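Just wondering, does anyone understand what follows?

——
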Amino acid sequence: MQRIAIIGAGITGLYAAWRLQEAGYNVSVFEARDRIGGRVLTKTLNEAGRDYAFDVGPTWYWPDSERLMTQLVDELCLPTLVQSTNGKMVLERTPRQIEEHRLPEDQTVRSHRLVTGMQGLTEAIASRLAPGTVQLLSRVTALTKNDQVELTFEQDGTSVRQLVDHVLVTIPPRLAAQVSWRPELSEQVHRQLEGTPTWMAGQAKIVVVYKTSFWKQMDRSGFAISWSGILQEIHDASPQTGPGALFGFFRLTATERAALGETEIKQRVIEQLAVLFGEAARHPIAVLYQDWAAEPETATVADAAPLTDFPAYRPIQLEEPWRDGVTLLGTESDPAFGGHLEGALQSVERWLVAFN
């Protein structure tokens, strides 16, 4: 039985492990973090004795265009909800100059969310894996290519080596460049790895939770665009029942966020939401903040530079002697859905066709 190692327990690595185990392969997944999911992260808030899920990583998928995500969610029987768009959007062109606009219904492409949060997806996939498949707190530090591929990983303060027939590297390309490759990768491949931006690695996400979705009483959808505030884009993140929530993406760069600090950032976000949605926005019951640029298992120093355009993602082909023993997969390798969860799944399916 062929032995396959997977570096990274994000959605790419977990999905690849599941599909490979179904096909009869011996699979191990090595994850440097103390949790699965990678950039998929859901935080839970208990309100009135009930837990509610709020995503601080990816939130949406689009059933009209994302076939694999839709099939996977259906297969795993995960409950979904349609992203709320009812009501008027808010536009802040200049500071405190607020406009309201009702977007045409036929111009809105409806996205879906998971009731459990996207972490429910990664946990559901992981539950299908054989016990012991995923090894947490196991950082792969080196790959050595001979007849087979030898992994070196750190676990419980000990350096461990393991021989496998094939390795799937599902961590972001810039993190893959930090692994010690023996023999070294070509300069061209190394430049490709370093030059591929990690999607959302320079961003942060904030979720502000309230007792109710008070903006709906104002005939507002919760969607807002600001050309001047600390948040540049805001959306409704409310669960089907219970509290209301708004989440936002920042205008600030990673360096600017680090200089301000989390406390000041939260205060400025609340102030901006009060300008956009009224005084009720000053009284949240929780503020959930995740800065992905501060995550060493997600971002490198290069990812702090803000993107000026959507990256042109594509597969990165390794050269000999690595080509037959190691494959790079992940959302950053998919030209059609790069940056989306669908892109992660598509990269796996594309490789499986070639591998089998």
